[in-house]
Amino acid sequence: MCGIIGITGDKEGMVSRLMAGLTKMEYRGYDSAGVCISHPEGLDVKRSEGVLDNLKETVKDMKDGTCGIAHTRWATHGPPTEENAHPHCDPQFRVAVVHNGIIENEVQLRQILIEANNNDCFKSETDTELVAHVLAQELDAECGDVVPDDEQLLAAWRRSLDRFDGSFSLAAVVKGRSDVILVARSFSPLILAHNEAGFLASDVSCLVGMVKEVCFIEDGDWGLLHKDRMELFDSEGNPVSRKSTKLQWNEEDAELGGWPTFMLKEINEQPAVVRACLQGRLSREALRGVKIPYKPDLVRIIACGTAFHAGMMARHYIEELSGIPCIVDHAHEFRYGTPAGPKALVLGVSQSGETADTLAGLMTAQERGYPTLSIVNVETSTIARQSDAILGIRAGPEIGVASTKAFTGQVLGGLLVALRLGRLTNKVHTEELAVISNAARRFPNAMERLLASTQLEQGLKRARRLFHDKNHAFFLGRNSSYPIALEGALKLKEISYIHAEGYAGGELKHGPLALIEDGTPVVVISSEGIIQQKLFGNAREVSARGARVIMIAVEGDEEAAAHADVVITVPKTHPLLQPIMHNVVCQLLSYHVAMDRDCNVDRPRNLAKSVTVE
Ligand code: M6R
For residue 376, which phi and psi values (nearest 5 degrees)? Predict the structure, then answer.
C-alpha cells in the first residue's frame, strides 16, 4: 500500500529525484509522506501530514545529498499524522527506516524495547519505528558507536530481520554510511535497479524514466544496495544474484497527456486496451498461446474488488463457452476456506499483480497442489512470477486508484481463457469462434463511437443531476449484467463516497426494496433477451416507490424509455461483449457524479492502488 523509494549515487539532486519518484507512486498511499537524506555527517529527515504537495513545501530548503530514502503512506498503525509518517528513526538518530507492509509481532517487540529503554522512547504509533529501534540496538551490539563497515551492517541487519514477523519491504540508512542502503523483502514487493546510481522501490512505476531494467528481488532476500551493485542474500544467508528484466512501460504511458484526470484518460483508453488485449489472440491457432496448465474439471477464480467483478464475468464466459463449472471467490475468503476441489485450475485476476490476498490465495492453491493461471496487467509483478502461467491484459499503466481500463482488460482476459477452455472441451467450434472474433474486431470502434456520442453526453448530464444531494444509490443487473451492477456500485462509492449497492434484480423483493424512497437513484443495466423484461419489471417496482431510474440500454431498444427517467443507450454488440459496453457508461456516470461533488477521483480517500497488506 505504502510506496517506498531509495537512491544512492555520486550526484547531488537527491531531494528532487526522490520527490519525483514519490509523485509517480503517490497513488499507493497519500495520507502523509517523508524523505531522509543520508549525509556523511548524519541523517536529515523531513515529513509532512497529508498529500505530497505538503512535503514539497517542507523539503524546499532541505540540504541536498547523494543518498536517500522516501515514503508515501497509507496508514495501518496510527492516524495519518506527521509523527506517524515515515521515515522513522531510533532515539539517537542513528538509523532511518521506510517500510511497506506490517510487522506482525509488533506488540511483543514493543514490550521488549520498552523494557530495555523506557516507554518515552517511541515517538509514533507505527510498527516501523520498532524496526529503527531494533536495527540501532543490533548496530550497538555489533560495533558500539563506531561507523559500521559493510560486514557489520550486514550482521546487524540480518539479526534485526530475524526478529521481525510479517510482511515487509524495508529500506534503511545508517549514520556515517551515506554510500549504502539496507534492503529487505518479506512477501511485500521490492525492486532494485542500477544505472549511474543504485535504486530501490516498492513499485516499478516510480522507476519508469529513471532506469531501463529492474530486478525483482525474491521473498526473503535482504542485503545492501550500493551505487553500482547489489549485495544480496537469501533467507538462509546464502549470497544470491537475481536477474534483471526490461521495463514493460515507458514514461509517457504513465502521464496525463492533456487529460484532466487519470481516471478520465484511462476510461477513454479502453478502445485501445481492447485492441491491444485481443491483438493476435483470437484465431484458432493463436488461442493456443493462452497457456492453460491442464484441462480442469473445475475452475476456481480468486480476486478482490474490481478484479473480483471481472472474475464474475469470467465465470459466465467459462461456464457458457466450455461447460466447465466455475466458482468465484474473494481471494481472502478462498485463502482460509476449503480446498479447491478435484482437478481444479485456480485462476487469479489482478491488475497490479501485487494484491496480497490474491497472491496468498494463489500460493495456498499451489501448496494444495493445484496449478495456477493469472490474468495480470503488470507482467513482471509478484503474482505473475508466482503463477504457473499468465495472461497479460496489455492495458498499460493504470494510475487512477479506481480501476477502469484494467477491468475491461481483465474481462477480455477471462473471455480468452474461456474460449481456450471451450476449444479444449470441444464446445467452441471454429464457426462460433469466427463470429466472436469478428464481433471483437468491431468492438473498439463501437466503443469509440459511444465515447464520442452526444447522446451519451446528454444522458450523463441528466443522469448525474439525479444524484445531487443523494447519499444512497442502487445498481441492478441480471446474469452477465449483474457483475456490472456490482462494479458500477463499487465505482460510485469509491470515488463519490455515495453509498451504493449492486444487486441482482431478482433479489430486490427479498430485502433491498425496503430502502427505496422518493428520489433514490437506481441504475438499471438492461440488456437483451429474457432478462430484459425482468429488469423492466424491476425498474417499474422501484419507480412505483419513488425511485428515479437511469436505464443503460442497447441502441434500438424502443421500450426502455417507458421504464426510466433517463435512458442512455450503447451500441449493440455480441452478447458476450455487451456488458463491457454498459460498464463504460457506469464508469462515466460515477466519474461525473464524483466531479460534481469535488472529489479527487484519482485518489479517493482511505484507498490505495495496490493493496499489498492482508
Ligand atoms: O491490483 P488488483 O487488480 O489485484 O486490485 C484489486 C482491487 O484492490 C482493486 O480492483 C480495487 O477494488 C480498485 N480500487 C477498484 O476500483
Answer: -130, 160
CATH value of 256-447 in 3.30.1340.30, 3.30.70.240, 3.40.50.10490, 1.10.260.40: 3.40.50.10490
Give the pLDDT score at 480: 93
Q: Indicate if ligand 1 lies below 6 Å from the C-beta of 208.
A: no
Q: How high is the pLDDT of residue 118? A: 60
- Quote the ligand 1 centre to 500 CA distance (angstroms): 17
Q: What is the pLDDT of residues 564-610, one digit of tens each?
A: 999 999 999 999 999 999 999 999 999 999 999 999 999 999 898 88
Catalytic residue among 2, 89, 215, 599: 2
Give the residue, out of 304, 401, 493, 583, with the most ligand 1 atoms within 8 A of its beta carbon, to mutate for a pocket test: 304
Chain-wide mean pLDDT for the chain? 94
Q: Establish whether residue 494 lines the binding site of ligand 1, counting it when its CB lies within 6 angstroms of any ligand atom.
A: yes
User: Tell me: the pLDDT tens digits for 94-153?
Assistant: 999 999 988 999 899 988 888 877 666 888 999 999 999 999 999 999 999 999 999 999
Residue 391's nearest CA partner among 358, 413, 424, 359 is: 413
Q: Of 34-38, 377-381, 496-500, 583-587, where does mean pLDDT reach its minimum? A: 377-381
* Ligand 1 close to Cβ of residue 9 (< 6 A): no
pLDDT at 26: 76
User: Do the Cβ atoms of 593 and 492 come closer than 8 Å?
Assistant: yes
Neighbours of 490 (CB within 10 A): 23
Kindly tell me if the per-residue pLDDT of 381 is higher than 70: yes
Q: What is the pLDDT of residue 608?
A: 83
The pLDDT assigned to 265 comes to 96
Rounded Cα distance between 550 and 588, Å, is 13
CATH code matching the domain that covers 3-252, chosen among 3.40.1180.10, 3.20.20.80, 3.60.40.10, 3.60.20.10 = 3.60.20.10
**For residues 395, 169, 194 and 204, what is the CA-based torsion angle, rounded to 10 degrees?**
10
Please tell me the distance between residue 304's alpha carbon and the centre of ligand 1 in angstroms. Answer: 6
List, for residues 245-269, the tens digit of each pLDDT value: 988 787 777 788 889 999 999 999 9
| Catalytic residue list contains 599 | no
Which residue has the CA at smallest separation from atom 9 of ligand 1? 305
Cα–Cα dist 551/127, whole Å: 49
Nearest CA to ligand 1 atom 4: 350
Residue 274 CA to residue 284 CA, distance in Å, equals: 19
Q: Is the CB of 403 under 6 A from ligand 1?
A: yes
Is residue 172 a contact partner of residue 131, using CB atoms and an 8 Å limit? yes
What angle in degrees, to the nearest 10, is found between the helix axes of 405-424 and 270-278? 30
Task: Determine whether 24 is an active site residue.
Answer: no
Quick one: 607 exposed, middle or buried, by C-beta within 10 A (0-12, 13-18, 19+)? middle
* Domain 453-614 belongs in CATH node 1.10.510.10: no
Q: Which of 46, 265, 405, 609 is catalytic?
A: 609
Ordered DSSP codes for 126-179: -SHHHHHHHHHHHHHHHHTTSPP-HHHHHHHHHHHHHT--EEEEEEEEETT-TT
Instruction: Print the SS3 string covering 449-478.
Output: HHHHCHHHHHHHHHHHHCCCCCCEEEEEEC
542-551 pLDDT, tens digit per residue, is: 999 999 999 9
